Amino acid sequence: MDENRNFKLKAALLSTCLVSASLNAVTGLVPEMAAAFPDLALSTIELVATVPSLFQMVGVLGEQLLAKFIGHKGAMLLALMFCAVGGVIPIFLPLFPVIFVTRCFFGIGCGLLMSSLLTLTVRFFTGGTRSTMIGLNGGISGLGSAASTFIAGQLLAFGWNVSFSVYFLGFAVAIFVLFAVPRDGNAPSEPSGGTPDAARPRRALPAGVWGLGILMFTAVMLATMYVIKASTLITDSGFGTAREGSVAITFLSLGSFAAGLTYGKLRAKLGGWTLVLAFAICAVGNLLGGFAGGLAPVWVGAFVLGYGYLIFMPFIQEQTSRSFGAWGETATNLVLVFQSVGAFVTPWLGGAFGALTEVLRGQFLITAGCFAVLTLGAAVFPAVKMRRAR
Fold first, then answer.
1. Between the chain's N and C termini, which has fewer beta carbons within 10 Å?
2. From CA 138, how far away is CA 383, in angstroms rounded?
């Protein structure tokens, strides 16, 4: 493959990250949408931010089957159409049932996109280039999320439904992929170090896998509270408008980007204590939001939370792969399903916290307390391991 074509292929594949990363771009619109649909409960409005996560796993689980008929490139193009069309329809039909359904389609598109991108990356690249591409996926996703959220916030000046215009990007990326990504003919080869399906054990998954899945579910659910509540905290407290709320999500995305750049070094240096640090950072982020007396602490809290968020997620995924690699994709897919469901059910967690206190800052403090408990729990395992090693 000549160098110019190779560059176009890399750019085309990485550009799809900008589309999937825009999943939370409209999260900051929740206060504006709540005002537009006063008859709906806030937890129902917040589903706009979380329901794509539930349908995302539908796309992930269905991509391999779909690729048997149209190939992985075809699945990627279909995913981009799901995201683009599902993303822009609310501009023209700003009705909540329509928005809800289109967000479901957007989630399916993101799931298809995530799976097809990983498959094609493994197919077209090897060795260090492959590792670099996978690393760039996370970095560009963080920047894409920050940029799309910021742009959506600025478009609020023209109406909350106009903010959905950020999803027109999906059409441009689809054209780029159509001409820059070659067709994939054969099934992708087994990644280096993978276990063939025939050699994988067929017995039930061990309790440890379920434990990691429940841990992922709990941590993602708690972290997503900040994602869906930050904008409401800003508007209800009089710190700013929904536009400043969207900027909070931008800061969260920038924190995630920073975490993506430093995760490898932290994991190598701290080992099991990495998870302890991640949960502690998430607790601090929520404390900043809970005690915020102005806009800046909410933004800083969002950055801090975003950093901790993208430290514990890859840690749990990697730990699943390291500890239960013999179960192959079954173990990792289970944890990913728990991850998606955790993000989806967050509005109901907010409702439960709301029953304890109607003060939104108090809910942030409760979340911080929950992360403190997770921090103490996570500290038990590396401490026990160190004691046994003596």
1. C
2. 30
The structural domain count of the chain equals 2
Amino acid (one-letter) located at 27: T
Q: Quick one: which of 378, 63, 27, 39 has its CA closest to 218?
A: 378
Residues 354 and 210 both lie in one domain? yes
Burial track 300-315 (b if 16+ CB lie within 10 A, e otherwise): bbbbbbbbbbbbbbbb
Based on the domain organization, do 19 and 104 belong to the same domain? yes
pTM over 0.70: yes
The pLDDT tens digits for 120-164 are: 877 788 765 765 676 567 667 777 877 888 888 888 889 889 999
CA pair distance 243, 241, nearest whole angstrom:
5
Nearest to 75 by CA among 86, 65, 85, 89: 65
Confidence band of 4 (pLDDT split at 50, 70, 90): low
Tell me which residue has tokens 């009089």.
Answer: 238
Q: Is position 277 within any domain?
A: yes
DSSP characters for 198-228? GGS--SPPPHHHHHHHHHHHHHHHHHHHHHH
Measured distance CA(294)–CA(225) in Å, rounded: 19
Of 111, 103, 140, 98, the residue nearest 12 (C-alpha): 140
The boundaries of the domain holding residue 96 are: 1-185
Judgement on whether residues 122 and 212 belong to the same structural domain of the protein:
no
242 and 139 within one domain = no
Residue 375 is part of a domain; what is its CATH number?
1.20.1250.20
